[in-house]
Amino acid sequence: MKTARPYNILTLMSLLLLGACGGPQKADSAMPATPAAPAASDNSGPSSAASSTSATAASADSTAPQQDPLTVTIEPRSNSKLKGTAHFEPTAHGVKVTIDVTDAPSGKHGAHIHQMADCSSKDAKSAGDHFNPESHEHGLPMVEARHLGDLGNLEVGKDGKGHLEITIASANLKPGDKMSFLDRGIIIHEKVDDGGQPTGNAGARIGCGEIKR
To answer: DSSP secondary structure string, 26-80?
Structure first.
């Protein structure tokens, strides 16, 4: 009987060990895959564009000149007792001017916007001439091409109270604008504005208000 060769014994032992361990392990195909990182958001889409547009509009609104309504006091001048207020309100069609006075002489009185917000002189001539940025001739409200400051006539009753409402197209209340009533003067005259040249023959300035914020 021949003796078994040493290498056959080693081979047999290796086979026995492999059988006990169940053979080589295979990778578990059921293991969940690592989730992919979310794709980067594309900020160039419609929503992003809309947000950018909204932000731009909001920025523009914040820097736009303010046109809040404004009320000024009308004080007596040229030895009159007239007093009152003038309210200026920006609208889609221009500026609505509302004038209310008391203690004024009965009848019609020319009302105009003048060049400067200066009522310092006793006769109100410190307010300068009619506000006329487009260099038109003077005219009453029915005339389209007239001084921008031509408001027509304020009618006062026997009780000394008068009221006028008029909207002036093309006017605004923007600071520094060529067509702005801001930083001008409002004048009430002693007589009726008859539409004549150069300023309506309305006589002395009996009321003055400074259109300021």
So the answer is: PP-TTSPPPPPPPPPP-TTSHHHHHHHHHHHHHHHHHHSPP---EEEEEEE-TT-
Cβ atoms of residues 146 and 137 within 8 Å: yes
| 29-40 core/surface letters (b: 16 or more CB in 10 A; e: else) | eeeeeeeeeeee
Place of tokens 């006329």: 132
Omega within 30 of 0 (cis) for the link into 198: yes
Say if CB 100 and CB 85 are below 8 A apart: yes
Does the pLDDT of residue 203 top 90, yes or no?
A: yes
Residue 32 has pLDDT above 50, yes or no: no
Cα–Cα dist 47/22, whole Å: 59
The whole-model pTM stands at 0.70
Instruction: Tell the CATH superfamily of the 70-211 domain.
Output: Superoxide dismutase, copper/zinc binding domain (2.60.40.200)
Helix (H) or strand (E) holding 167: strand 162-168
Question: Is residue 132 within 8 Å of 146, Cβ to Cβ?
Answer: no
Burial class (CB in 10 A: 0-12, 13-18, 19+), 189: buried
What is the Cα–Cα distance from 20 to 10, expressed in whole angstroms?
Answer: 16
Kindly list the domain boundaries of the chain, sorted by start residue.
70-211
